[in-house]
Design a protein that fits this description.
Elements lengths: L2 H13 L9 E3 L10 E16 L3 E15 L4 H17 L10 E9 L3 E3 L6 E15 L6
Length: 144
């Protein structure tokens, strides 16, 4: 398995079962969210870390995006902030994501501005959280 896949699975496990969103967590959802509050986990860019490689390993930075979804109302941003806090605590409690032989560090990369989407009765507020996961793999195999 590619180390990026192991990272995505580890994050999925960490953000499933949070107080506010519970098990309403999906990975790379291409369709609208029906049950809220919820989270969507998406894999972003996976780039080489500057100068962090040698003849035996490569260091990379994987961007992980977590989309928080809530039902819109008068204070949807309050609900988003609660979810963002729970997600942040879950991920930053163990910055190697329980993958000490793979993950070097996890760092917050900032959160996007809240957005509204939907039509009439099914308006959804959402906000994207971004994390940078620095990890290492063999020069010859991204799964080793």
């Amino acid at each position: 398995m590619h180390h990026a896949e192991a990272i995505m699975q580890a994050i999925l496990a960490l953000i499933t079962g949070l107080t506010t969103t519970g098990n309403n967590v999906a990975r790379g959802r291409p369709y609208p969210v029906e049950t809220v509050p919820a989270l969507t986990l998406m894999q972003g860019e996976d780039s080489l870390a500057n100068g962090l490689q040698n003849m035996s390993f490569v260091d990379r930075i994987l961007i992980v995006r977590i989309v928080c979804h809530v039902k819109t109302g008068t204070q949807f941003d309050t609900d988003l902030n609660q979810i963002r806090r729970e997600v942040y605590v879950a991920i930053m409690a163990n910055r190697n994501l329980n993958l000490p032989n793979i993950v070097i560090d996890t760092a917050p990369e900032g959160d996007d501005e809240p957005e509204l989407s939907g039509d009439g009765e099914k308006n959804i507020g959402q906000q994207v959280m971004n994390f940078a996961v620095t990890y290492r793999h063999s020069l010859t195999d991204p799964g080793a």
